[in-house]
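Annex B, item 7. Sequence and C-alpha cells for protein A, then protein B.
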Amino acid sequence: MAARRWTAGAASIALAGLFLGAVPTWSSAQSAPPAAETGVAVTPARVEEDLTARTALQRLSYTNGDSVPREVTLEVAPLGHDVLGTPDFDSGPRGAFAIQGPTEFLLAPGESRDVMVDIDFNGSVATYGAVLATIDGAAGLSGDVGLVNRVAALFLLRGPGPWDQTLELADVGIATSEDGTEAVLLIDVKNVGDAHVRAVGNVVVSHEGQPIALLDLVGENVIPGYARRQHVAWVPPPGLEGDVDVVVRLDGQEPMAQTIAVGMVAEAVTQSRADNNLAPGGATFGGVESIPAPLSLGRLWWPLLLALVLLLFTARQVQKERQRRAAENDTGTVD
C-alpha cells in the first residue's frame, strides 16, 4: 500500500488569516513561481476573505518541487475542524466549489500549473471548503516508492453581512504547560452563528469572590457549528486551593462563566517554578504582577483611591478657607 501523508498546506486551520487581493497569473511569458524544495506545493494554501458578493473566482497555483514528474488529482471537500483546530474534510457546511477544467494533470519537475475555482455561497452568508490535491508518482528525492501526498487549499469566506457570530462556552479546563512552569486554561467555545469569528477578549479568574487575574485571550477562528479550544497561560499564586470562577469576556459576546478546580495544577506549577528558580505567581492583571490587598475592588481600586484622596484634599481646603474667614470676622468685631 502506498504511503499517505498531509503536507503543511493542511496542517492546521490556526494559521494567520490571509486577506488576499488579486492573485498573480503565471504564463509562458512570465517567470515561474519559486519551486518547492520537495513535493508539490499549492499557493495560496489558505484564503480568508470578506467579499462584497456571494460568488467568487479564485486562482490556485500548483508547483512540482521534485526531480521527477508528479500526477495531481484534485477534488473539492467541505471544511470543518476538531476542537484542536485540525481541519476536517469529511463533514461541515458545503458551499458550491467547482474546479474549472481538468481535475487530473501531470506536473514535470519544476513545472507550475494554475487552476481556477468557482465558488458560490448557495444563499449562505459564509462558506467553507477545501480543494484537496492527491499527488502520486515515482520515487522522489527521499526514495519513497509509490509516495502519495495530499495538500489542501483552505477557504474561509464571508459574504456581505449582517453575520451572526455568536459564541457559546462549551467547557473550561486547566492543565500545566509543557515545561510545567505555567498553568494553561483550556477554554472551548462553540460557534452557534452563521459566520466564522476569531475568539478575542479577556478572562477574569476569581477566588472566593475576589479577582486574582485578568488575562488576555487572543484565540483562533471558529467555524459555525464547531467548537475550538483557546489556550490562555496563567501563573497561579502560591497556596491557591479549591475552585476558581473563570469568566470569559469575548468581544461582541455576553460574558460566560464556569467554575473549575485548580488546586493540583496550581500546586504543581508553584513547585515547578521553585525548582527552576522562577518568581512565584501572584495577582495578575494583563500580565502585570500586583499586590493582593486591593483586589476586592478589582481594577477600580486605583481610580477610587485617587478620587478619595482628591475628595479629602478638597474638604481640607474648604475647612481651611472657613477657618480663615472666621478669623477675619473675629478681628473686625466690636464688643
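Protein B:
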Amino acid sequence: MKKANLKTYRRAFQIFIALAFIIIPLLNRSRYSMVYGNFLSFHMFGIPVADPLAVLQLTIKNVYFTIDNFIGTLLPLLLAFAMGTVFCSWICPYGLFSELTQKIGKKILPKSYKGLTLFKNGFPFKMVIFILGFIVFFMFSTTPVLNQLSTAAWYARFFQYYFGQDIISLCYLFLLALLFIEFLAGKRLWCRYICPQSILIILTKLISRKRLQVAFVEEKCICKPGYERCDMACTLSLKPKILTHSLETECTNCGDCVLACKKMGKALSFDFPMLAGLKKSTIMTRFFPEPRKIFKRFFITIALAGLGFFLFQTYQQMDFFKGKINIEHKLLTDKKIVLDSDKIADIELLANGNIIARGGEWPLNGSGNWRWQPIDDKGSFKIVPDPTQPEQYTLFKVDENIGDGATVTLTHNGLSLSEDFTDEKYKISELVDIQEGDKEPYATVEGRVSLSQYANQTFVLNLYVKDPKGLIKKIETEGDHIGIEGMLTSVGKWINSPEIIVPAEAIPELPFSTRMKVIFHDGHTENMRFETNAIIDRSNVEFDDPWF
C-alpha cells in the first residue's frame, strides 16, 4: 500500500471542505443552524469567519465596524500571517477543481501542447482588478463588487440556493466556463491573474518574514537544467527554485514542489521560522522535553473540547420539551390589547402563553412566536421573544390597572424590541375579550412589511421573515403594484433583496396590501396577509438603489 504523503493529506482536506459546503445547506434544511454560511460569511458554533475583502469594502464605505467583523476578519488574516496563502491550496474549492482540470488536461491534450505563454508575475494584474473594483464599488454600487468575483462563494451559494430554496443558480455555468478556458489554456489563469479574494491574504503574508514558505538549498539540487521536477510539479507554473530571490506573491504553499524534490536531493523544503523559534526556546526544552507528544495531546484535547461543545450546542437547540403552559390571569388571559401605534395594531394574550401580534407592520392574521408571563395583579407582564433565553425580555408595565385608556411603560431587558415598540409609553385604546370567531390561523413565524417614502417620491417596500432555525424552504410574495416576488434567505431570516421599488407613476394608496406564502421544509404552508396603513417618512434621504 502506497504511503500517504503531504499531497494525499492536502487533497483529502480539499475534498472534505468541498463536501462540507454541500452538507451544511442540507443540515440547515433539516433545522440545524449551529453551522451556516459560505466563503464570504461563515458561522460555526457562534464563531464568525468573514472574508476580509468584503469587510474592508463595507467598512470603508459605511464607516461601520463590529466586533463580529473584527473577529471574523482576524481569523483568516492570522492564518495568512503564519502559514501564507494556504487558503488557496488547502481550502478553496475552486482551487481543487482548477488543479484537477489541469491534471485532466495533461492526460488528454497532446504532450507537445504547452498551453498559453504566461507573464511571469500575475500579481500586478490582480492589483489592477482590485483597484478598479474598489472604484466601481464606491462610485456606482452598494454591493461589494469584488466579492461578486469570488469563485469559492459561487460554489457554496449554488448548494445554498439549491437545497435551501430549490433554485438552480446559473453561477455553476460561469464556473464550468472558467474551468473549460483553463483546460484549453493549460494554465490556472484565474488563480494567478484575476482572483481578488486572495489580495489581502497575500499582502498579509508579505508582512510576516517568519511565515511558512518554500526554501531552496542550491548545493543539494541535482536536477538537469530544463528538466526541473519542481517546475513540472507546480500547478501554478511557477519556478520554485527562485521564489526566495524575489517578492514572493503567488506561491500557495501547496507542497507539490517539495514532494517532487524529495527524490532529487531534497533541495526544496518547507521553512517555518516561527515554529523553529518555538522549538529552540529554552522554556519549551526545559518544561516540555517531548514537544511532539505535548502538541499531539494538546490538539486531541482541543478536538475533544470542540466535539463536546458541538454536542452541547446541538442538545440546546433541539426542542425536547414542547409542553403547553396554561396561564390563568383574570385581567390578561385570552384578551386583546389594542394599542395606539402604527407599528402594532393589537396584541392577543393566549392562555397557552403565546402572544399574537396583529396589524400595523404585522400580518392581519397574526404572527405568534413571542411568549408572555404575568408579573402582577394590575395587568403588567413580560414579553419574551425567545423562550430559550428567558432572561431577555421586554417589561410591559401598567401604571394603573389595565383597561381602556391606561398608560403602559415598556422597559427592555437584555434584548431590545425597539424595532417593534419604538416608544417608551403607549396608550391602550381598547381591552376586549378574544371571541372564538376571531381566532383565525396565525403564522408561527415572525413576518413584517413596511413602506417607506424616500426623496423624489420614491416608495420602497421592505419585507422580512425571521427564520433562526432554518425551518423555511421558500417564500413567495405578491401585492398591490408588485408582481410575484421570491424572497432570499439571509443569516437567520428571509428578506426581499433588493428592496421592492413601487413605480413612481403608481403612488401607493393606503391601505397597501401584501401577501406572503411561506413554504416549510416539512411540507406545510402558512399564509400572511398585510395591510399597511402608514408610510415611514424618509423623504430627507436619497434612496440608494443597489441595481444602479
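Comment on protein B: Residues 282-292, 317-324 have pLDDT under 50 and may be disordered.
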